[in-house]
Amino acid sequence: MTDKPANGLNTGRTAAFFDLDKTIIAKSSTLAFSKPFFAQGLINRRSVLKSSYAQFLFLLSGADHDQMERMREHLTAMCAGWDVEQVKAVVAETLHDIVDPLVFAEAADLIADHKLRGHDVIVVSASGEEIVAPIARALGATHSVATSMREEDGHYTGEVDFYCYGPGKVEAMEKLAAEYGYDLAASYAYSDSVTDLPMLEAVGHPTAVNPDRALRKEAAVNGWPILTFSNPVSLRARLSAQSTTTVATTAAVGIAALVAGAMTFGLLRRKR
């Protein structure tokens, strides 16, 4: 089942666009990987400390436009010259250990609800695609869009091909809508930051999640729903529990079928 616009006409498919940091997970996805990057010799101790401080500020007050620009400049300069395959390998090896405990249970429930309603789920993040894409796959998202770094001879140049931030997110959403037939007026968007105001305004059903002060004010003015996510859980444990439930349900259905079959067989024998 998909939702319909107010005019009653369903002109396309419905999508749910999710920001990643502080919306789906409790920290900055990029900064969360500073320790494994340090362990692999990609960054030095000073960069780890700088990332930890940036993470603290991010959790304390979110990130405004100037902070996002400074973070972009810091990260692109830091990763210039890195081996692309090495970065992907580090993310793949440490993804569950780093991200697994950070996923908000409320976000996972909301993603599952949208999927049950037949909506495509799309993660849209300013973090690098090498980090965002694996997280999105682990969450069961349909697509992901993220910042793309320029590569040359298997290494990052320190330049950005596409910055998935602000109006850039809307550009990516509109491109996906054109490609997959999404009706943005019938679609949903979730974010914590006022820097994602263009993304929220691009859909018919915007929602502020753990909003910073500026976004909370915008949400109040526009009458948008405000959600609070505060319960990070282990995604691995959650998936395991769901799998156990599925097995138990299947077993119960199988036993019920056997019992029903036995009863039917007994009735037929008595009739004979």
Automatic annotation (TrEMBL):
InterPro entries: HAD-like_SerB (IPR050582), HAD-like_sf (IPR036412), HAD_hydro_SerB1 (IPR006385), HAD_sf (IPR023214). Keywords: Hydrolase, Magnesium, Membrane, Metal-binding, Transmembrane, Transmembrane helix. GO terms for molecular function: hydrolase activity; metal ion binding. The chain crosses the membrane at residues 247-268. Belongs to the HAD-like hydrolase superfamily. SerB family. This is HAD-IB family hydrolase. It comes from Rhodococcus qingshengii JCM 15477. The lineage of its organism: Bacteria, Bacillati, Actinomycetota, Actinomycetes, Mycobacteriales.
